[in-house]
Write a structure and sequence with these properties.
The complex is a heterodimer of chains A (415) and B (169). With 415 residues, chain A is of the alpha/beta class. Chain A contains 14 helices and 18 strands. Chain B has a seven-stranded mixed sheet, covered by helices on one side. In chain B, helix 3 crosses helix 4 and helix 4 runs parallel beside helix 5. Classes of the chains: A alpha/beta (415), B alpha/beta (169).
Chain lengths: 415, 169
C-alpha cells in the first residue's frame, strides 16, 4: 500500500520503511521555530535539566529559529523583558537563525521561514504557533505544538508522541474569476469541512488550480488549513517527484472543488467556518479594515490592494491598517510606490508583525465595532474586545470595502 | 471522584475564549490562572476569588480548545485543578493538556446541566443528578496515559533523555 506525502515524510524521519495512520512515531525534527513564547519554552527547558547536573544545551542550535513578531515593538514592559531574556538565551545557545525587531531581517515567522530558505520539501517542521501549517506550501510536514512540547524538542531533537494523521485529498480544478483566489478557496474549504472537520488530519492539495497558483497563494491555503482543525496542510513540491505521494496512497476522504464559479467568501462572526458568499453580507458596515498577517501580508496581497485603492480614498470614519508580513516585503512595496498609493488613499502603514490580529496592540476595536480583516481568526474577542465583531476576507475584498465603508465586491479587471 | 459542573460550554470553544491573546506575555504556569476566561469578567472573578472549588468540572462540546497553540490555555485551567469533560478536543490543546497534567476526559455523548454532580470513573461518567445516566469515556492513547502517569511531559522527556545518555556511555 502506498503512502501519502505526510506518511512518507514521517516514515523517513522516524527511520521506518512504512507508517500508517494511527501509528505513533517520534520523528527527528529538521527545524523548530518559535516566537515571543520562547520565554516560556526556555522556562520549561530549564526545568528539563533540573537535577540532571547538566548545563541546559539545545540539541542543535542550527535547527532552531526564533523570530519576534507577535508583539513588536514591545507593547509592555513584560513583553520587553521576555524578549530580553530570549535574546540572552539565543546568544548563550549560539542560535544564529534569530530574527529580532529589525528593518532588514525582521518579519512574521511564517513569512521569514520561506523567505530565508529555511524550509525544504520533505522536512519535519514544528513551531509553537498553530499557523505553522503554512510551511506545507513548500512540501514540508509542518505543524503547531505547545511550549512544553517544544522544550522537549530542544532537548531531544525529536517530536514525541506524534500520531500519524489520516490525509484528506483536496483536488482543485478550474480557473478563478477575477480577484477571486486562494483566500476565497480556503475559506470555502473550511466551510465545507467545518472548524473541526480535519482535526487530527492533514489536507493534501492537488489539481491544476493549485499547480497554477503562486507560492503566495499556496502559503495562504496551508496557513489556514489549521482553521479546519488540520494538523497541517501540504502541497507536493513542483518538479520533485521524490516529494510526491505514492500513486496508490490511501486517503480517508477526497474533496473535489471546481473554482470556476467560486464567488468571494467571507467568514462571519464568531467562527471561521461561518463562511458566506459575499452576496449574503454585502453592505455590512465596517469600521476597521486590516490588510496583512501571516495569512495575507505578502507582496502580492499588498499589490492587489494598491491597485484597487489607486486614486481612491478610504471612506471617512473607516481606518485601514496595513501590516506587511516582513521587512523584505515592506521595502519592496515601498520601493515600487504601493505604500505611497495606500497612504495617499488614507491607509496607515504599520510595521511588519502580527499587529492587531491577536488582540494585543496596534488596532483594538471599540464596543460594537466591526473589523473586516485579511487575517485568519474571528473568534469572539480575537481582536481584543469581546464586544466587537471580525469578518475575514481576501485582500481584494478588504481594499474594495475600504473605499465604501461597507462589505463590497471588487469590480473591474485586475491590472 | 465526584464533583459539580460549574460551567457548561458548547462546541468549538477557542483558546481566545479560554485565555485571550493579549495576556500571552504572561506564560508561567504559576501566573496564568489569573487570566482564565478573562473576557468573561464575572466568571474570571469567581475563579480568581476562589469561589469555584478545586476539582470542579467544565462540561463542553466538540473541538474544545481550538485555535492557537498557546499552552497558557491549558495551564490556566490546570491552575484551578479543573476537570474538563468534553465530547472532543482540538489537537494542540489536547497535547498541551496532557503535557501540563490538566485532567481531560473524552466523553463523546456527555449530557449535563449546570450544577449537576458527575461521578467520574475509569471508563464512564455517571450523572448523579439525573439519577445515574451513564456516558462512556474514550480512553487517552497509551502514550498520553504514560505521559500523565509520569507527571507530565517534563519528567517524561527528562527520563527519556537520561536513559538515552546512559546507553551512549
Amino acid at each position: 500500500m502506498g503512502m501519502t506525502l505526510v506518511e512518507k515524510i514521517l516514515a523517513r524521519a522516524s527511520g521506518k520503511t512504512v507508517v500508517k495512520p494511527g501509528d505513533v512515531v517520534n520523528p527527528e525534527v529538521d527545524l523548530a521555530m518559535s516566537h515571543e513564547n520562547a520565554f516560556l519554552i526556555k522556562h520549561h527547558f530549564g526545568e528539563l535539566f533540573e537535577g540532571t547536573g547538566l548545563e541546559p544545551k539545545v540539541w542543535d542550535p542550527s535547527k532552531i529559529v526564533i523570530i519576534f513578531d507577535h508583539r513588536i515593538p514591545a507593547e509592555s514592559a513584560k513583553t520587553a523583558t521576555n524578549q530580553k531574556l530570549i535574546r540572552e538565551f539565543v546568544t548563550a545557545q549560539g542560535i544564529e537563525k534569530f530574527h529580532d525587531i529589525r528593518g532588514d531581517i525582521g518579519g512574521i515567522c511564517h513569512q521569514i521561514l520561506p523567505e530565508y530558505g529555511y524550509i525544504r520539501p520533505g522536512m519535519v517542521v514544528v513551531g509553537t504557533d498553530s499557523h505553522t501549517t503554512t510551511h506545507g506550501a513548500l512540501g514540508a510536514f509542518a505543524f503547531g505544538i505547545g511550549a512544553t512540547d517544544t522544550a522537549s524538542v530542544w532537548m531531544l531533537g525529536k517530536a514525541l508522541n506524534i500520531e500519524v494523521p489520516e490525509t484528506i485529498k483536496v483536488v482543485v480544478t478550474g480557473k478563478f474569476k477575477d480577484y477571486v483566489g486562494a483566500k476565497d478557496l480556503i475559506l470555502y474549504i473550511i466551510k465545507l469541512l467545518t472548524v473541526e472537520g480535519a482535526n487530527f488530519k492533514v489536507l493534501e492539495f492537488h489539481g491544476p488550480a493549485i499547480q497554477e497558483m503562486s507560492m503566495s497563494g499556496r502559503l495562504t491555503i496551508c496557513n489556514m488549513s489549521v482553521e479546519a482543525g488540520a494538523t497541517s496542510g501540504i502541497i507536493p513540491a513542483d518538479n520533485e517527484t521524490s516529494h510526491w505521494p505514492d500513486e496508490d496512497a490511501e486517503y480517508c476522504q477526497t474533496i473535489e472543488i471546481d473554482v470556476s464559479d467560486l464567488d468571494f467568501q467571507i467568514a462571519c462572526p464568531h467562527k471561521v467556518d461561518n463562511v458566506k458568499s459575499i452576496s449574503e453580507v454585502e453592505g455590512t458596515k465596517v469600521h476597521q479594515i486590516v490588510l496583512g498577517s501571516c495569512t495575507n501580508g505578502r507582496y502580492e496581497d499588498i499589490r492587489i490592494a494598491a491597485e484597487i485603492l489607486r486614486g481612491q480614498k478610504v471612506a471617512s470614519n473607516v481606518r485601514m491598517l496595513v501590516f506587511p508580513a516582513s521587512w523584505k516585503i515592506y521595502r519592496e512595496a515601498m520601493g515600487v510606490g504601493h505604500f505611497m498609493t495606500l497612504a495617499h488613499a488614507g491607509a496607515v502603514i504599520m510595521n511588519p508583525g502580527c499587529g492587531c490580529c491577536l488582540g494585543v496592540h496596534q488596532g483594538a476595536l471599540g464596543d460594537g465595532e466591526v473589523a473586516l480583516s485579511t487575517t485568519n481568526r474571528n473568534f469572539k474577542g480575537r481582536m481584543g474586545n469581546p464586544n466587537s465583531e471580525v469578518y475575514l476576507c481576501s485582500p481584494a475584498v478588504a481594499a474594495a470595502s475600504a473605499i465604501t465603508g461597507y462589505v463590497t465586491r471588487p469590480e473591474g479587471e485586475p491590472r | 471522584m465526584s464533583a459539580i459542573v460549574v460551567l457548561l460550554l458548547g462546541d468549538d470553544i477557542s483558546t481566545d475564549t479560554i485565555y485571550p491573546g493579549r495576556f500571552m506575555a504572561t506564560g508561567l504556569p504559576s501566573e496564568t490562572p489569573k487570566y482564565a476566561f478573562a473576557d468573561d469578567v464575572a466568571l474570571n472573578k469567581r475563579l480568581v476569588d476562589g469561589e469555584i472549588p478545586k476539582g470542579s468540572i467544565i462540561v463542553a462540546g466538540k473541538n474544545f480548545g481550538c485555535g492557537s497553540s498557546r499552552e497558557q490555555a491549558a495551564s490556566t485551567l490546570k491552575g484551578y485543578e479543573l476537570t474538563i469533560v468534553a465530547k472532543a478536543y482540538a489537537r494542540i490543546f489536547r497535547r498541551n493538556a496532557v503535557n501540563v497534567g490538566l485532567n481531560i476526559i473524552i466523553c463523546p455523548e456527555i449530557e449535563a446541566e449546570d450544577s449537576d454532580e458527575l461521578m467520574i470513573q475509569k471508563d464512564k461518567v455517571i450523572n448523579i443528578t439525573t439519577r445515574g445516566l451513564e456516558f462512556d469515556i474514550m480512553p487517552l492513547s497509551e502514550i498520553e496515559q504514560a505521559i500523565i502517569d509520569a507527571g507530565g511531559l517534563i519528567p517524561y522527556t527528562k527520563k527519556l533523555f537520561l536513559e538515552s545518555r546512559g546507553k551512549q556511555k
